[in-house]
Amino acid sequence: MRIGIHGRLYPAEAAHTVAHIISRVSAAGAVPVVEKGLADRMAEAGVPLPEGAETMLQAGQAKLDYLISLGGDGSFLDSVAFLGASGVPVLGINLGRLGFLSSTRLEETDQTLQAVLRGEYSITERGLLAMKGLPAFEGGTALNEVSIHKRDGATMIAIHAHLDGRYLNTYWADGLIIATPTGSTAYSLSCGGPIMSPDCEAMTVTPISPHNLNVRPFVVPWSSELTLTVDARGEKYLVNMDSRSEILDRQVDLRVSSADHRAKLVQLTGQDFLDTLRSKLAWGLDIRSARPGFQGV
To answer: Which residue, 46, 62, 74, 176, has most beta carbons within 10 Å?
Structure first.
């Protein structure tokens, strides 16, 4: 079995943790294949790859069975983008904080690897968004969201939105988020968007600080195409696909729709989305009895 290892730029002190995880992959009987950029950063930190590890430039040529994403949810998004349409399932080991997507804790590494080798998991598929109209993002996908946002200090922007060719609305706001069901628990949620089950066939249009208070998030079918045109009054604005950004100072028509492939996520036996909601968002807890420093009356 060949297991890929991918992660963001780590501080030097984290290189030893990454090397430990790579060695545990080898100890489990699999061949670790490390993304070359990560291997180079480890070498710069003075931590060589453990014996038996290979490197890769692209996931599609590495003949991987799985990919392990190291870090937090941002690293997980980068890993999904790195895999592209390769069809390789991804598993996240959380080296960050909340870890909604990368839900496996570092101390569970050995247990998780053994579960994968024993086949004690399922593969869930998650919808991705694609965008046309901006060469920098052509061919790329977003697992969480596509968003448009004003630059710091700029006035609000006007985003003219059309749904399947029909005029939907003009959003006078700080920005707009088009979220997948997976991304409904990310940026969209913080802006008042609904939580969607990952198996929903829909996307959410969520305004960021809208000027008109009666403008609310809007759920549209997964088969829809949204055309977005920004009127920024000469100001620069940001277009984002997950953690990738492009600064624009001109008017373009951005077409956002579902991608023609889906991301594959490894889900261990006994894990499900409802468990994640309860553990990460503290659902079901009585916060009245858990306030820090609360002594009663």
So the answer is: 176
